[in-house]
Amino acid sequence: AFIDKKTRPFLKDLNDHITHVTETIEVYRETINDNLNTYHTHMTNKLNDVLKVLTIFSVVFIPLTFMAGIYGMNFEHMPELSYEYSYPIFWGAIVVVALGMIYYFKRKRWL
Hints:
The protein is an all-alpha fold. The protein has a single domain, classed as Methane Monooxygenase Hydroxylase, Chain G, domain 1 (Up-down Bundle), CATH 1.20.58.340. It has helices at residues 8-71, 86-107.
């Protein structure tokens, strides 16, 4: 025989130890992978929260920018420009639109 009979029990014991260490390493590898997946999920959730806030700001300010763009044009025949209260009405409309959107987002619990 290539391996002595006295050595075989030691080799079996060594094989058991190697199997145990291999299984332990596999458990650690799975634990590390689970922790990494949890970390990635957490970071994705934080990024989604940031993107949600940026989107809400965009949705609030895009209509306001549109309104300011319309009234920033130099047309001669805009009847509301000659009206005495057009400037306060314009700002009132902007405030109403902005507050309305913020109220809507708070009601939906997005803010």
